[in-house]
Amino acid sequence: MSTPQTESKRNAGYQAAGMVEDGMVVGLGTGSTVFFAMERLGERIRRDGLSIAGVPTSYQAAIRAREYGIPLTSLDEHPEIDIAIDGADQVDPAGNLIKGRGAALLREKCVADAARRVIIVVDPTKMVETFDALVPVEVLPFASTSVSRRLSLLGAVPTMREGVKKDGPVVTDNGNFILDCSFGTIGSPRDLEAKIAAIPGALECGLFTAYGEKITVIVGEEKGCRVVSLR
Ligand SMILES: O=C[C@H](O)[C@H](O)[C@H](O)COP(=O)(O)O
């Protein structure tokens, strides 16, 4: 059943797909919103002969892209990406992001970093003034307890993400665990990202604060969508 939120996601995804040009290498994010962009890209490939290659950020993105007929390539083949389309869990007015609800944050950050332009597609519930969502941290299983302790010292309440229809921890596409960290309200996302990055065994976190200059945020509405100007 289609809900207003689904329509918002669809409108954002379709708008982003319209920004892709012939011949581009496209980063394909993970999650429910970016799937609409992939759906529309698949239509453009079939209907208009659009020629692109996608770099998937997860098994889920790769599987869905194949279903939509989007040819795939890799970050090894294309260490520079023309445009990446991805979702987010929260977006602040400067274009900082929290990502990783789907545990794809590590590859998503590699792709965002490699991309010349990043299009973030969200529904209006994701737009916030200040971050307060859980920050996922991908951790090396060997170091999960020591990383958890260090995160606690930074003020987090870390919880190991558990599988659904699988007992025990979520194992990411990279073979690691996820610690979901509650920090309450986050005053300086950039500082926090840097502090987490300095913990050995914390492989990446879901705070994305380095890409505001190349990010365009498309907020889908029930009817249409708007492009947000970043402050
Ligand atoms: O790991 C998952 C990703 O960061 C997603 O892009 C993010 O969680 C947003 O997903 P959705 O579009 O389903 O809300």
TrEMBL record:
<comment type="similarity">
    <text>Belongs to the ribose 5-phosphate isomerase family.</text>
</comment>
<feature type="binding site">
    <location>
        <begin position="99"/>
        <end position="102"/>
    </location>
    <ligand>
        <name>substrate</name>
    </ligand>
</feature>
<dbReference type="Pfam" id="PF06026">
    <property type="entry name" value="Rib_5-P_isom_A"/>
</dbReference>
<dbReference type="InterPro" id="IPR004788">
    <property type="entry name" value="Ribose5P_isomerase_type_A"/>
</dbReference>
<keyword id="KW-0413">Isomerase</keyword>
<comment type="function">
    <text>Catalyzes the reversible conversion of ribose-5-phosphate to ribulose 5-phosphate.</text>
</comment>
<dbReference type="GO" id="GO:0004751">
    <property type="term" value="F:ribose-5-phosphate isomerase activity"/>
</dbReference>
<feature type="binding site">
    <location>
        <begin position="30"/>
        <end position="33"/>
    </location>
    <ligand>
        <name>substrate</name>
    </ligand>
</feature>
<protein>
    <recommendedName>
        <fullName>Ribose-5-phosphate isomerase A</fullName>
        <ecNumber>5.3.1.6</ecNumber>
    </recommendedName>
</protein>
<comment type="pathway">
    <text>Carbohydrate degradation; pentose phosphate pathway; D-ribose 5-phosphate from D-ribulose 5-phosphate (non-oxidative stage): step 1/1.</text>
</comment>
<feature type="binding site">
    <location>
        <begin position="86"/>
        <end position="89"/>
    </location>
    <ligand>
        <name>substrate</name>
    </ligand>
</feature>
<feature type="active site" description="Proton acceptor">
    <location>
        <position position="108"/>
    </location>
</feature>
<dbReference type="InterPro" id="IPR020672">
    <property type="entry name" value="Ribose5P_isomerase_typA_subgr"/>
</dbReference>
<dbReference type="InterPro" id="IPR037171">
    <property type="entry name" value="NagB/RpiA_transferase-like"/>
</dbReference>
<comment type="subunit">
    <text>Homodimer.</text>
</comment>
<feature type="binding site">
    <location>
        <position position="126"/>
    </location>
    <ligand>
        <name>substrate</name>
    </ligand>
</feature>
